[in-house]
Each structure stands twice: as structure tokens, then as C-alpha cells.
Amino acid sequence: MKSKNYLDVIFLEEPIIKRKIALMVNPQHKDDFIERTNHFKLRTTLILRDVQWVLDEQVVPENAFNPHSNRWTYIHTLEDIYKWLNGTAVNHTGITKFEAIGKSAEDRDIYAFSIINPLKDDSVKVIIEAGTHGNEYIGTHFTTYLINQLLNSTDPNLVMLRKKYNWYFIPVLNPDGYVYSQKEDRLWRKNRRRTEGKSIGVDLNRNFGYKFGLYDASSEPEHERYHGPSEFSEPETQVLRKFIDRKRDRLTFYFSFHGYGQKIIIPYSDSTRHLGNFHEVQTYAKQAAAKMESFAGHKYSVGIPFDLFGKRQSGDSASWVKKDYHVPYVFTVLLRDDGSYALALPNEQLLAACQEMEIGFVELMMSTPRNMKGNTFFTRARGIRISVLPFLFIILPMLIMV
Ligand SMILES: [Zn+2]
């Protein structure tokens, strides 16, 4: 939670007992702050002396196709990301599509980038959502990296994954928040909803139609986790709902990539128990986490929000997709780091963070059942498509009787 008090301390996350927390202190209050924390016997470590400098270094203005730069060692502007995605689609005509799928609160385009197999229209679908929180650039950063790897890598696993599935990416679901975070307030997380002439913003990952407003969400517009006036009140969450509705058939994998925490979160966000196919999914996620840790020693934890944060949540995209569309493999993934640099992940770590997540992502995709035919079976209750499987159960006993 971003909140200020008399020492101008800004918490970068909600304080929870017995957990490490990142916060920023105004330099003029530094000595007071240390004195206070010593008084309460709280242990503090200085991570960054000049946060603004690191944040300023993160974003480069324009270099969509600069051949001399490594694209994934810098964070990019929204304009540059869209330019790059458009150019990438042009370079891979026939199997890619870059299309505007709706508008944000401030009338910016929200785009989807697809990689599809034109000869196999019935492939299983993967949807990847990122950039839902304006200040968590790393999720969008990894998403564009993954698009690039799927299209250009010669790694046999990535080539196989590209051909096997139909891929749909929404790299920046919250373009207004992304721009506002880069231009005005680096810590801005919400969208840019206006009410009575004021931009108050809604936390989009509390606005989806799953147990709306129940946990870890506020009805106070000024709050960092304001859930909005009603579920799906925001143009951005509506755009995503409309898009997923169109792609629901055979939708089997759903990923929501976010900023720091190093966690693979499995639904359901409001539960204190492990429900549905949690144990199966957890096995794959733990394998992925182990692979990632062996890459550079960064540990990723796996579980439901209650396991990982000690609290319940609601209104998140992952739980809503899992529940409403019966998608078997749904993950909310928090990339680097563990909270040491928090949102100010140094540029030297950006590419490594992507490579590390790529290893985990490929492992996760490869370890789920190979003969996966999509969730046709799961959606039959909604009248989308009737699988032959139920009929087998009916016919067999009759044959035995004869
Ligand atoms: Zn987030």
C-alpha cells in the first residue's frame, strides 16, 4: 500500500507482520526514521540510496528497432512498445496479428498480439495478460520478450510451443496507468478513471467479477486498492472480458504477469483452502520454480494468495477466468525481485529476469499433459461445444448388457 505519514515514509506494499517490507524515506527524514526504527527494534537495511536515479535510468525514450541496443536491458515507453509490436507483426505476416481490442478510460488503444497457426485453427489457446498495474513494468517487459522468443528462438521447446498452441497476448491492459507512472507518478498502480473531474483510478486487479470487493480491496476511491463502483465498471476490465469471451473455446492456459515478488500464484484468491486441481497445478509450478532457482539462485514461491501473503484477495483476473471459463491452468506470476529493489529493479537485472522467467514458463508449459486437447470438456456445461466423452459413458453399459 502506498501511504504517507509524518516522516514521509512511502510503503511500497502493505505491511504484514513478520514479513520484509520495502519502503521509501525522504532523505531529510532519514536520521529520524532510523532512530524510530531502532527504538522499536526493527531491523532495516538500506537497499538504494537514490531511488529516483534508478527509476529515471529504467525508461529509454524511443528505440523500437535500434539494432545497436539490446531491447530487454531497458524499460520502454508505451509508444515504443506498440511500435515494436506492430513492426514484429509486419515481420511475421501470416502467423501474427496486432489489433486494437478496445479503449482505456483515457481513450488509449488496448492491443492484443496473437501468434496463430493458420493451418490448425482448433489449437488449444493460451492467453497472457500483463501491464494491469501501471507501475509494474516488468510484466509487460517479459511479455514482449516472450513474444520475441516464440517467434525467433531456435530452441526446439519454444518452436514446438509456438506451433502447438494459439497465443494471445495483451501486453499492456492498463495503458493509461503505464503512461501516468512513467510521466507523473512512478508508483501509480491503478487505471485513470475520472470521477467528478478528478482522476482517482481503480485497481483493475480488484475489479473483475470474482467475489468483488470482499478481500484486500477498498471502497475508498483514494485507496491504492480501490475496487471501483461495481465489478467490471472499468473500460479496461470490460475490454479483457469481451476478448476472453471471444477466445473461450479451448482456452486452457491463462497467465497474468505482474511486478515484483517472485511468486507463482494459483487460484483461488479468496480461499484459505486448496481447491479444484490445485495439487496438480502446484506440482508443475514447483518444478518450474526449481528450474528458475537453478538458473540464477532466485527463489520463487508457489501457492494460493493466503499461503503466500497470509491474506485473502478478490476481484482478480486469474480467479475470475478460472471460475467463469473453467480454465485448467491459470497463474498469476510475480517476477523479480523479492522486494529488495521492488519496483526499481536495476537495468542490469531486466534481461536476466526475462531469461529466468522464460525457463520457468517453458517448464510449466512442457510439464502439463502433452495430449491436451483444450478445455472443450470443461466448457460443455456452458453450451459451447459437446464433447464425445459423455456419450461414451452412456453407450458402454448398454453394450455390456447386450
Ligand atoms: Zn500487479
Notable characteristics:
single chain; 402 residues; alpha/beta; Aminopeptidase; 2 domains; eight-stranded mixed β-sheet; two-stranded antiparallel sheet; 13 helices; globular; disordered C terminus; binds zinc ion
The fraction of residues in strands falls at 5-15%
- Counted up, domains total 2
Dominant shape: globular
CATH class category of the largest domain: Alpha Beta
The secondary structure category is: alpha/beta
Largest sheet entry? 8 strands, mixed
The tally of strands reads 14
The fold-level CATH name of the largest domain is Aminopeptidase
Name the hetero compounds present.
Answer: zinc ion
Give the name of the CATH superfamily of the largest domain: Zn peptidases
Side-by-side strand order of the widest sheet: 5-6-8-7-11-14-12-13
The run of helices and strands is EEHHEEHEEEHHEHEEHEEHEHHEHHH
Mean pLDDT equals: 87
Architecture blueprint of SSEs:
Blueprint: E1 10-11, E2 23-24, H1 30-39, H2 51-58, E3 59-60, E4 75-76, H3 78-91, E5 96-103, E6 109-115, E7 124-130, H4 137-152, H5 156-164, E8 165-170, H6 175-183, E9 194-195, E10 198-199, H7 235-246, E11 251-258, E12 263-265, H8 278-296, E13 301-303, H9 305-309, H10 317-325, E14 329-334, H11 350-367, H12 376-379, H13 389-401
Parallel strand pairs: 3-4, 7-8, 7-11, 11-14, 12-13
Antiparallel strand pairs: 1-2, 5-6, 6-8, 9-10, 12-14
Helix pairs in contact: 4-11, 8-11
Bound molecules: zinc ion.
